[in-house]
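Listing S7. Sequence submitted for prediction.
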Amino acid sequence: MSGAAQSFGIAALGGYVPLLRLDRKTAARELAWSGLPMPRSGTRAVADWDEDAFTMAVEAARPLCGMSAPEALRFASTSAYFTDRSQSAMALDALALPRTVRTSDAANSRRAATSALLEALLGGRDEIVTAGERRPTQAGSTAQLAFGDGAAAVRTGAGAPVRLAGYASLSHDLVDRYASREHEVSYAYEERFVRDTAVAEVLLPVVRAACENAGIASAQLAHVAVHEPVGGCWRAMGKPLGCKAANHCEVVSEKAGDLGAAHALFGLGLALDAAQAGEFVLLVGFGSGADALIFEVTGPVPGASAMRSALDEGQILASYSRFLSLTGSVELDWGMRAEFEQKAQATVLERVGRDMIGFIGGRDSTGNVQFPKSAFPVNPALGAVEAMEDVRLADLAATVVSITADRLNFSPDPPFDFGLVQFDNGARVLMEMVNRPAEGFRVGDRVRMRLRVKSRNRSLGFRTYFWKAAALARPLLGDA
């Protein structure tokens, strides 16, 4: 169950929460006629139509790539779109990391991310573990309001401000909920059975073993991030453990929802943001067993405070029908303009796919930056083939030069905003706009790049990805 602690730890954190947030009280009121029990407090993070587990996991990992290339990149999710295509290999290109970085995908358990993190820590390697979720739900189910969409990422390293002090793992095929190919939405079992069994047979034993491995008493845990299979598990554990620490994962559930494989890592970000030097922090990932990791904090962790801020930024989604459409719970008749499919060719992806998903333009010999790159520069002063210097545009801000809000062309979430943006280095690119501000986009607005789904081919089950422009700043949610 347990093993020797390693002097290796967490160097930095990253998190991503979609802009849109559904007020659960509003949704529950909409469903009041049904008599179905619904969560009524807090907000639920809602991914836009062109966001999925992969795009959000990339967004969470972006702040962790500035130091240097990691030894490995691990992607964890239970809702990844592709089942026979490595999302971690795609993420490597999206993050413009060298293809020599090792990649691996983890799935089939909500603790996939904590398991991957533990493997990285025990291996003593500089790795990025990123997790994203957008789990399908059924309208009227408790899960539809309790779940949330989002992502979290961790980078491991030596000499980090957070040291792994102890750990324990326990495998237990407790079927608290499941999803399958024939039943894609999560099916949950009775809460009392799950709570009683999980606490007694899984959570208490694994936390006690981790504390013993770390050489501390459970009462010394100052902060915890425990992914609970159902509410009330940590409260039931507090007395037998003699621990009064609050569970930071409950804050994530309240403000964004249960983020699946990313939930424990996001809660860890909040815990480390609140922790002081010398304190111990408990991380528990749950799913077919549990992983318990105990960290000793020696200093502030880069990215932790940004994760807390991300929970308070967003835009209230007031329309329940729009929420149902975005979550795929209803299929609207969009008319003939929606009757088209875009087929991606493997040869095209092989030739220019890395530059596209990495948003890499080129700088010619005169300093002019263009996208996409081409054999002949677009600069009229140059008339011969030349090799261009790579310029990554994904991490740069830009300014809106022109903007159109189109309601004639099909978009799953109209209007279709697009326009010309100019980067500070001079590059100009015609782009789609996302995360529309309340007043709409305007010429002169500053924007940043977000990785999104570019096209969806439902008949072939394929997606392509590219970057879209989003408002540089996000509004504060206020009192939702």
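Caption to Listing S7: primary sequence and predicted structure tokens for the chain studied. Residues 13 and 453 are 24 Å apart (CA to CA). Confidence is low (pLDDT under 50) at residues 2-6.
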